[in-house]
Amino acid sequence: MIFLLRALWAVIRYDLVLSFRHKSNWANAWLFFVLVVSLFPLAVTPDIVLLHSIAPGLIWVAALLSMLLSLPHLLRSDYEDGSLAALLLSPYPLPFLILSKIVAHWLVSALPLILISPVLGVALHLSLEEISVLIVTLLLGTPVLSLVGSVMMALTVSLPHQSILLSLLVLPLCVPVLVFGAGAVINVGLGLSNEGVFALMGAILVLAVTCAPFAASGALRVAEF
Amino acid sequence: MWKRLHQFASPKFFYHFSGHLIPWLWGAFAIFLIYGLISGLLFAPPDYQQGDAYRIIYVHVPAASLSLMVFSVMGTMSIIYLIWRIKLADVVATASASIGAWFTFLALVTGAIWGKPMWGTWWIWDARLTSELILLFLYLGVIALRNAMKTPDTAARAVSVLTLVGLVDLPIIHYSVDWWNTLHQKATILKLAKPDIAPSMLYPLLAMMVAFFLYYCALMLMRVRIELLEREKRADWVKNILYPSTNGIGASKD
User: Fold this and answer.
1) CB contact under 8 A, A155 and B162
2) Is residue B85 included in any domain, yes or no?
3) Is residue B74 in some structural domain?
4) What is the dihedral of CA A193, A198, A204, A210, to 10 degrees?
5) In this predicted model, what pLDDT tens digit does every residue of B227-240 receive, in sequence order?
6) Is A60 near chain B, with CB under 8 Å?
7) Number of domain units in chain A
C-alpha cells in the first residue's frame, strides 16, 4: 500500500516537474482561456445586461475549449518518448497511475483557470454570489472534463492526426457538465436553490472518477506502441 | 449451451444462417410497411389540432426510437466483444453504426420538417432535439474513430470502449438537457400507463416501428455478411463462396 502511494506520488511529481519546465505548453492554454472570454465583449456587444446573461456559459465553454487544447499534453508526449510504455509495464495497477496523471493534469490545466475565473467574472459583471457558485461548479466540473478527456486521449494516443477526432469525441460527452455548470450560475439570478445541481455534478464526478481511469487504462492497453 | 453459442457466432455459420434469414426479414418488412403506410397515411383520422401534418410521425417516431435502440445494440455488442472477444459482435457493431447514424439524421430532418408548420421554426434548442443531435455526434465519433485506426483488432477494442462510455453518458445527457429546456412533447406511447393516442392512429404507428426494426435487422445482416467476407477473405469457406466454379482458388480441395 505504502509503495503504491509512493508510486502514485512519483507519477504526480514527475508530471508536475515536467510541466513546470515546459511552461509554454500550459501557459498557451491559460492565455487562450482569457483571450476567448475577452474577445466576446468585442465581438458581441459591451452591453452590461447581455454580457451578464451570457457570462456563465461563456466562461464554461472557454474553460472546456482550453482544457481540450491542453489535453494532448496529458499522454501524448509520454507516448512519444516511451515513458507511457514504461508506465504500462510497471507492477502497480494502471488505473491508479492514470488517475494520478489526471490529477497532475488537472492541477496544471484547470486549477489556474479556476483561479483566473473570478477576475473574468467581475469583468463580465457577475455578482459576488454568482462568482462563488461559478467557482464551485468549475471545481466540481473540470475534473470530469479531465477524466473524460483522458479516456478519449488514451483511445487516440497512437493516431497521427488526433486533434480533430479528439474534439469530436470529447465535446459531446461534456454536455451534461456544461449544462449543469452554466445552469447553476443562472439559477442564482433566478433565485433558485443550487443544492440539487451541486449534488448532481458531484454524482457525475464520482461516476467519472470511478469509471474513467479503468476505461482509460483499458484503452491504453489497446494502443499500438 | 456455450458450444451452441460459439457455433452460432462463428463467421461461417452466421454467414449462411443470416443468408437464409434475410429474405424473411425483407418479406415481413414489406408487409408491415405496406400496412403501416396505407392505414397511417390514408385511413387514420386527421388530428383535431394538427390536421394531416401529424402523419409525419409514421416516419419520425420509428426513426427516433430506432436511433436509440441501435446505439444500445452497439453497446451490448461492445460488452460482448470486450468480455468474450467474439469477433462477430464487433462486426455487428460496425454494421450498425452508420445505419444508426442515418436513423438519427432522419429523425432530426423529419422533426425539422414537422416543426416548421407546427412550432413555426425548423429548429429549437429543446431537450429532445439537442440530445438527439448529440447522439448523432456520438455516432459520428464512433464511425470516425473506427476509420482512423488501421488494424481492425485495435479499432474494434477502441471503438468498444468508446461506445460503452457513450452508452453510460447517453442517459446523463438525456436527463441533463431534459431538465434544462423543454418544448418537445412527452412520451405518449412508451409508458406503462394507457397510451394517450387513439388506437386507429396507434396501430399503424406500431406497425411502422416494427417495419423500421425489421428494415434495420435486414440491412444490418446484409452489411454483416459483406463485412464477414471482407474480414475472412483468407478463409477457405469464403473462397468457396466467391469462386464456386473453380471450387476455391488456392483453397484446399476435398
Assistant:
1) yes
2) yes
3) yes
4) -150
5) 998 888 888 888 88
6) no
7) 1
**Nearest-angstrom CA–CA distance, B211 and B32:** 5
Inside any domain, residue B134: yes
Residue of B146, B172, B179 for testing the chain A interface, max A β-carbons within 10 Å: B172
Whether this model's ipTM surpasses 0.90 comes out as no
Q: A101: which 3 cell numbers?
A: 496523471
Determine the residue type at A145.
L
User: How many CA atoms lie less than 13 Å away from A146 in the CB half-sphere?
Assistant: 24
CA angle B105/B109/B110 to nearest 5° reads 115
pLDDT per residue over A97-136, tens digit each? 999 999 999 999 999 999 999 999 998 888 888 999 999 9
Strand partners, B47: B51
Q: Which residue has the cell 513546470?
A: A20
pTM for this structure?
0.85
pLDDT tens, position by position, A49-108: 888 888 888 999 999 999 998 888 888 888 888 888 888 888 889 999 999 999 999 999
Q: How many domains does chain B have?
A: 1
Cell of B84: 468474450
List the single residue in B137, B149, B164 with the smallest CB-CB distance to A168: B137
Asked if residue B20 is part of any domain, the answer here is no
Identify the helix (H) or strand (E) that includes residue A134: helix A128-156
CA dist A224 and B151 (Å) reads 9
Length of chain B as a residue count: 254
Reading the block at residue A55, the C-alpha cell is 457570462
Q: Which domain holds residue B178?
A: 26-43+53-183+195-242
Rounded-to-integer distance, Cα B223 and Cα B227, Å = 6
Query: Measured between CA atoms, how close is B223 to chain A, in angstroms?
Result: 25
Query: Which residues form the domain of A211?
Result: 2-222
Length of chain A: 225
Secondary structure of A21-48 in the HEC alphabet? HCHHHHHHHHHHHHHHHHHHHHHCCCCH
**Whether B141 and A180 lie within 8 Å, measured CB to CB:** no
Task: Tell me if B204 sits within 8 A of A207, measured CB to CB.
Answer: no
Cα B182 to Cα A175, A195, B25, B131: the distances in Å are: 16, 22, 38, 11
**What is the rounded CA–CA span in Å between residue A184 and residue A188?**
7
